[in-house]
Amino acid sequence: MTTPALTPVPSAPARARPGKRLLSALPPSGLLGLAIVLFWLVVTVAGPAMAPHDAAAIVDPEVFGVVSAQFPLGTDYLGRDMLSRILYGARYTVALALASTVLASGCGTLLGLYAAVAGGWADAGLSRALDALISIPSKMFALMMVASFGSSVPVLILTAAIGFLPGAYRIARALAVNVQAMEFVQAARARGEGMAYIGCVEILPNMIRPVLADFGLRFVFTVLLLSGLSFLSLGVQPPEADWGSLVRENIGGLPEGAPAVLMPALAIATLTIGVNLLIDNLRGKRKDA
């Protein structure tokens, strides 16, 4: 009795890793935004180690020096290397904005989920309280906080986080209310699942992309708010400096077009443009099944 030949079964194609799927889904503008964001994140972490000079060292007798091989971004109003100043300043501009945005979006999303799932008086109370807070302009609220508690890193982080929390709550609640009306959420309620399970397992995964897009947008707003406070001398205080402080302290070189005032502004612009390009393309390319 002969044994029939076995036909080899083709192996299932390996699934692409999440990182590769993300890169393949992003269009060229999204990849450019991702590259800019990653560049500034690396600078935030490794900026002081990459800086050719100490941020406070006066390395050139000429103030508002032009771009040269020795000083690629020129020198400031005291003769300090602007490249080193920008690399050191990224720690405050990016790190403070990132910490504030994580706090605002995280708390706003959790509160929005709770309000949508709980409903009733909890939803109404949270919404009315945060409506009262959102009615205060963010810059006015920041000025009140700095005037009351002084300017320090914790105060700046909490100020930006509290100021942008109501907007994050509103977005998260609206998304959660739409998702919870779907049949699979109603089925989970009928099974007797608790609020934590419904919110974190059933609703949150189905609203994560819009929440991430909102996170990127709030990060941009936070960068601009903190840089604006520093430009008004109400943000990061000397001897430390963020990019907004660098623009303010070198504003005297603006009439002559000094690189010292243009380069920090360019750094803020590239960061915000990069984040906007990334979040605009966060949905990626849609593929036909």
TrEMBL record:
<keyword id="KW-1003">Cell membrane</keyword>
<feature type="transmembrane region" description="Helical">
    <location>
        <begin position="92"/>
        <end position="121"/>
    </location>
</feature>
<keyword id="KW-0472">Membrane</keyword>
<dbReference type="GO" id="GO:0005886">
    <property type="term" value="C:plasma membrane"/>
</dbReference>
<feature type="transmembrane region" description="Helical">
    <location>
        <begin position="257"/>
        <end position="279"/>
    </location>
</feature>
<feature type="transmembrane region" description="Helical">
    <location>
        <begin position="141"/>
        <end position="165"/>
    </location>
</feature>
<keyword id="KW-0812">Transmembrane</keyword>
<protein>
    <submittedName>
        <fullName>Peptide/nickel transport system permease protein</fullName>
    </submittedName>
</protein>
<keyword id="KW-1133">Transmembrane helix</keyword>
<dbReference type="InterPro" id="IPR050366">
    <property type="entry name" value="BP-dependent_transpt_permease"/>
</dbReference>
<keyword id="KW-0813">Transport</keyword>
<comment type="similarity">
    <text>Belongs to the binding-protein-dependent transport system permease family.</text>
</comment>
<dbReference type="InterPro" id="IPR035906">
    <property type="entry name" value="MetI-like_sf"/>
</dbReference>
<dbReference type="GO" id="GO:0055085">
    <property type="term" value="P:transmembrane transport"/>
</dbReference>
<dbReference type="Pfam" id="PF00528">
    <property type="entry name" value="BPD_transp_1"/>
</dbReference>
<feature type="domain" description="ABC transmembrane type-1">
    <location>
        <begin position="90"/>
        <end position="279"/>
    </location>
</feature>
<feature type="transmembrane region" description="Helical">
    <location>
        <begin position="31"/>
        <end position="51"/>
    </location>
</feature>
<feature type="transmembrane region" description="Helical">
    <location>
        <begin position="215"/>
        <end position="237"/>
    </location>
</feature>
<dbReference type="InterPro" id="IPR000515">
    <property type="entry name" value="MetI-like"/>
</dbReference>
